[in-house]
Amino acid sequence: MNTGENVKAWARIVPAVSLDDACVAPMDELRRLAYRLMSIDQHAAEAVHSIVGSLTAPLQVLVAGRSGVGRSAVTRLLESDAFASHRVGGAPVIPTETRAFDVPGATDPDLSSHCVVVVVVDAIRDADRRAVGQVSDHCLAVLNKADHIGDGWEDALARAAEISGELSAVTVPLVALTGQGREALFDELSPILELWWWRRVDGIRSILARVAAGAEVGESAGARDEVEQYLRTDSGLIFAATGALTRPELCEFVADAPPTPTTAEDARRCAQWWGGPTQREHPAWAESISLVHRAYVRRWVLLGGERDRSEVSA
Q: Any idea what DSSP says for residue 176?
């Protein structure tokens, strides 16, 4: 469920003020890894280049909704100069209007693989609830034509808050034709886009592990060593764990966990929390939890902790 509380989960390991601050150094490390691999194993180098390409590929935002709610106007607003230059981890944002859903005799569009803006109007229908329910953790609801609600913008804001509760998704009022409310739209959409970008990051560790496994013998053994060394670096481990924090199964853990560490003691507390009963009680997610635990241990060391203290590093 996206209520706006978990979209910045990625910031809990890296105390960065923006996504750019959090990802520039790890992205540069990946590019350097690809460069080193060029003279060792062309296939491995191309695989790492592909990873970088996947992280900077356009992020598509699907603008969905029932017929007549204003999908086209919202799409044009997202295509305007005010938002068109937006970048997420170097990836441009591409708004795309879907065909209407809840059309008799037609199949509803697939919203599962992208960030989604679901456009609704004051009269919420079951079709709106179903659509948002399928994509609630990467969806923003927009109450369009908000100038027709009540006697002013305060009434529109109040109605949007009610709809947010009904749909279990952040909802912002908007008048797409005039742009009223667009600042709130952009502000609420940005962290959802960031969440989706970090889910791309979450997949790269397994890809790199396969690259290393494919470079087992002969001249390619050097490529294996390079990749495995990257995976052991502070940058590689923390980058991967930051992506793992966006996994749906960790949502409740993230909400309950200690806040972003700014001191060695903070990081020690985080490492102990993630390395404690949480791992033992949820064996199905042990790999994810262990990855986050190890990243907090690494943060602890970087902040001045003693690497060999067993109560943290176990």
A: T
Contacts of 143 (CB under 8 A, 6+ apart): 120, 121, 122, 149, 156, 159, 160, 163, 171, 172, 173, 174
φ, ψ of residue 151 to 5 degrees: the values are -110, 5
What is the pTM (predicted TM-score) of this model? 0.85
Q: Are 295 and 238 in contact (CB under 8 A)?
A: yes
Residue that the structure tokens 């902790």 belong to: 305
User: Crossing angle for the helix pair 42-56 and 221-232, nearest 10 degrees?
Assistant: 40
The pLDDT of residue 49 is above 80: yes
- Token pair, residue 302, equals 């970087």
For 168-216, the pLDDT digits (tens) are 999 999 999 999 999 999 999 998 999 889 989 998 988 998 888 876 5
Residue 86 to residues 82, 83, 157, Cα–Cα distance (Å): 8, 5, 25
